[in-house]
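User
New here, explain this?
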Amino acid sequence: MNGYSPTLSVATAAFELAAAAWTLRGPGRREILRPVAAILVFLAGYQLIEVFVCSQPDQILWARAAFADVVWLPPLGWLLLLRLARPERRLWGYLTAGAFAIAGFFTVWVFADPQFVTGSVCQAVFATYTHPTYMLEAYGAFYHLGLWGMIGGGIAALSVLQGARERAHVADFLYGTVAFVVLALTTEVVYAPARDATPSIMCHYALFLALFLTRLSWREQRLTVAAQQA
């Protein structure tokens, strides 16, 4: 594994999968808890894929699967915000549907284009990837715009929402997103080897998002039980 340790990835994935299972089994609004659980599953998915990327570096399929996995975070985040904020304008629903369509396109492209990922190098607790194609620029533009859309959408939702529960949920989503995006981008700026490891760095820091989503799920379940017992 070239000095790579899978401990962090395995431990993070175990937490995220356990949180997803607990979220799905608990009480609360399904339209809120299902996207939360889906985000947690995809975050865990990357962690486990990275273990295979680093244990079998000659199998490019795993590197492709890593990029196919992380591209779904922005549309799932938008979907969760859409269901929490419930905007009156249909535009936001169309944009979210479009984001899912684009993520689907890139998922197919990652596996179809033999030049999208041609190699990986693992060190310590992250993996870097080789991309001899400009299609990565389009992929990266969609991914980063999607993340900033999650942040901007969260801020916009907080400015209009009135309900205490929804505001708290959106705040948790926003705090988790800002934490992992800012930390990941800062790491890439100050630590040169991390600049070709965006999926790995992002998903490791996304543990902060997972923690805040778990708190969101706990609040949703607690308030649902309290309402049922009132």
